[in-house]
Design brief:
Length: 265
């Protein structure tokens, strides 16, 4: 028996529109991964609440979805704006079924050059905002009977990389936040899982690909000898948002071409 009362055996096999009429919030929706995730969830039938700080890029990202998407310009480093978001989404779209905590920033700097202010900003956007958003979204999800949260972590949450201390700590934190949310809410119809991408070609990483050292590192360390395209991450995210993952909870699915399994870099 599931928390909403149905038996698993009674359920029909999920079709291609498994998220029909569900409302999915995607943060960082104007970015590389956010756009791919939004497209994939839209293809599965979801109505979208697209969230970003960058108003112009957000409007551009939303344009392809017409009335199936609403935009919310929010600075996720601001607790008040972040906490208010789930209520605004419910008021405008009539529900909130799926929350994808995707927005992120990454500072590349050795520890001695990283200021406490920069450290805090990375943790605010990459770790505290998913906590604040989840905390504000969960009570309504419980009331609705079910809700799915997918956090975008990273292999850097499992493997330490030099010059990325705040980012690695934030991503390690979100892997643990994923587990603690599951522990507290799984019996009340909440799923919280994470995706741990390896290197993905997006605006965040574009500069990498211009550096021969990074190309060489990926060829040396990534078992598949290549980086990913955003669409290759969006499919696994959609799996964790839909009903086919209903016995998957508290886990981080690494979508990294085997890099984390090899444990080298
Ligand atoms: N690209 C990769 O190789 C890679 C690998 C592992 C994990 N990730 C994670 O994937 C997620 C998406 O990254 P991406 O590669 O698409 O990067 P991106 O830079 O293309 O997109 C990030 C988005 O987050 C938004 N954002 C940043 N700060 C914000 C704030 N304060 N409030 C609201 N929105 C804000 C940005 O405006 C941007 O649109 C991030 O969490 C990132 O850490 C990326």
């Amino acid at each position: 028996m599931t928390p909403s009362g149905e038996t698993v055996a009674d359920r029909a096999a999920p079709g291609p529109d498994v998220l029909r009429d569900k409302v999915a919030v995607v943060t960082g929706a104007a970015g590389g991964l956010g756009r791919a995730i939004s497209r994939r969830l839209h293809a599965a039938g979801a109505r979208l609440a697209l969230v970003d700080l960058d108003e112009a890029s957000l409007a551009d990202a939303a344009a392809e979805f017409g009335e199936q998407a609403a935009t919310f310009v929010v600075d996720l480093s601001d607790d008040e704006q972040t906490e208010a978001l789930p209520g605004r989404v419910r008021a405008q779209l009539g529900g909130l079924d799926v929350l994808v905590n995707n927005a992120g920033v990454r500072q590349i700097a050795p520890i001695l050059d990283l200021t406490p202010k920069e450290w805090r900003h990375t943790l605010d956007v990459d770790l505290t905002a998913p906590f604040v958003l989840s905390r504000a979204a969960i009570p309504g999800m419980i009331e609705q009977g079910r809700g799915k949260i997918v956090n975008i972590a990273s292999i850097t949450g499992e493997l330490a990389f030099a010059d990325r201390s705040a980012y690695c700590v934030a991503k390690a934190g979100i892997i643990m936040l994923t587990k603690t949310i599951t522990l507290e809410f799984a019996a009340r119809g909440i799923w919280c899982n994470a995706i741990g991408p390896g290197v993905v070609e997006t605006p965040m990483t574009r500069a990498y690909f211009e550096s021969p050292a990074m190309r060489e590192s990926i060829e040396r360390n990534a078992p598949m000898k290549r980086w990913a395209q955003p669409e290759e991450i969006a499919g696994p995210v959609a799996f964790l948002c839909g009903p086919e993952s209903d016995y998957v909870n508290g886990t981080t699915l690494f979508v990294d071409g085997g890099w984390n399994s090899a444990k080298t870099y």
